[in-house]
Amino acid sequence: MQPGPIGIFDSGYGGLTILSQIREQMPEYDFLYLGDNARTPYGTRSFEVVYEFTSQAVKALFDMGCSLVILACNTASAKALRTIQQIDLPKIDPRKRVLGIIRPTVEYLGDITQSRHVGILATSGTIKSQSYPLEIKKLFPDITVSGEACPIWVPLVESGEAQSEGTDYFVRRHIDNLLAKDEEIDTIILGCTHYPILYDKIRQYTPSHIKVITQGEYVGRSLVHYMQRHPEMDALCTKQGTCRFLTTESVDIFRSYASIFFDSSIEVQSIALK
Ligand code: DGL
Asked: N or C end of the chain: which has fewer CB within 10 A?
């Protein structure tokens, strides 16, 4: 098997917030980002459709030389990861790996919450899948988890409205809803890769004693440890510090919107998934 870049997949632009943080911690590695921008959002789609789209994307990244793919999308991690790992990978190539971003986020939670009451803000798909409460219960059975779906936040971010006044209304409403479910919450996880773009507004409407956690730093840290534990995978990842981008939308559209999420010029190519 030839070494290649690490594949990073998201339904759209949100995974760029994860990619930035991973690159900060692993600057020497090569990355190939794929955004399924033509079919985003995934958050309101069924299990079957999210699985089908995600597995097409994973296969495309494998075909382009990746041995390791990170699903930098909570919705895909919640709805497609397990089936891809258990059913698809053994058939495609058992040496390849696909990792999600829910487990790495949850692993660090035990040291962060003191009240042991945690809130999750995420897409409808991620909340309905119960992936966060299930993962948290496995590692920290004493933590109580409440979730709130914020279906309008991704469209607001993707349409460039993150800083608009109207967005304040929806940010505040979902935070208030979440905190009304459990007033002992002392930690909120932003369980969608788009939400860091709304961080300032989320912080503004969240009481100051509550910690607001974004995922990128934890996912990066966890990937560094993964490479240390798996030298055989590390040897399959090239290291020249490059980063390339693929989109299912047009190159021009990707370039203009990607600048909201990613702070440098990008080399992008359009592909079709099937
Ligand atoms: N970025 C995806 C996530 O983290 C949400 C975007 C979507 O709904 O497609 O869940």
From this structure: C
